[in-house]
Structure formats: C-alpha cells, structure tokens
Amino acid sequence: MDSLIPFTTSGSLVDCVDRKMLVVLRDGRKLQGVLRSYDQFANLVLEDTVERIYHQDVFAEMWRGLFLIRGENVVLLGEIDLDQEDEVPLRQVEWSALEPYHKQDIAVKKHREEIKADVLFEEKGFCKEGGEGDGY
C-alpha cells in the first residue's frame, strides 16, 4: 500500500536525474541544464546550464556552465521535452541586444510590485516583504 503513496519530498527527483530541466528561481531567472545531482534539501546541481531571458517573441541565452542552486530559491522545476524543444515559436537573438529590454521589463515589474505592496500595506494592513513582521 505504501508504494501507492506518491513522493512529496526531494526523493521524487530521482527520475529527473540526467534529464534536461528548466528551473525558475525566486529572483525570476530561468535556467536550463541537465540535472546531475540533488540532496534532501532539494539543492540542485545543473550541468551545461544556460540562462535564458525573454522579451515579447524573442529570447537570448548566456552560457553559465555548472550551476549549484540552493533548494529554497527554486520556484519551479520541470523537464524539457526534447522532441518539442525546437518547435518553440520564438526567435533567438544575441544576449547583448536583448539585455537592455529585459532589464527594463524587470524594472517595470519591480515598480509595479512596490506600488502593490504600498497599497496592501496602507489599505489592508499587510506587511511589506522584508519588513517588520515578515520573518519566518
């Protein structure tokens, strides 16, 4: 009966080792690489890692190599379907051409989040992230 209970711990990652994975981090970065190892805290080791940035219908990649990721920074981890990977309707451009647009997108998002945090704080009594009462 216990074999029917699904893994809800880092042990569920055992089938993902040696597969190409997409990892989205808390700071918004998107990494693609081959998962080589993990531990009980879901710390990950990615090999042949590239960081991708996006803007509208284009993307750019920057080689990052071997990457160690602390488990608490992982928002999403998913396997990349190698059969469908090349069918993405996005055009690849140079990192240097796309980086200014990406930085602008990040700045706009950060400004929006600050406004939202101010409204939630002033009107609803929520604490601001990183502020008093935000400890865990």
UniProtKB/TrEMBL annotation:
Component of the cytoplasmic LSM1-LSM7 complex which is involved in mRNA degradation. Residues 8-83 form the Sm domain. SUPFAM superfamilies: Sm-like ribonucleoproteins. It holds the Pfam family LSM. InterPro entries: Lsm1, LSM_dom_sf, PTHR15588, Sm, Sm_dom_euk/arc. Component of the heptameric LSM1-LSM7 complex that forms a seven-membered ring structure with a donut shape. GO terms for molecular function: mRNA binding. It is found in: Cytoplasm; Cytoplasm, P-body. Keywords: Cytoplasm, mRNA processing, Ribonucleoprotein, RNA-binding. Signal peptide: none annotated. The gene is lsm1. It comes from the Eukaryota. GO terms for cellular component: Lsm1-7-Pat1 complex; P-body; ribonucleoprotein complex. This is U6 snRNA-associated Sm-like protein LSm1. Its main location: cytoplasm. CDD domains: LSm1. One of its GO terms (biological process) is mRNA processing.
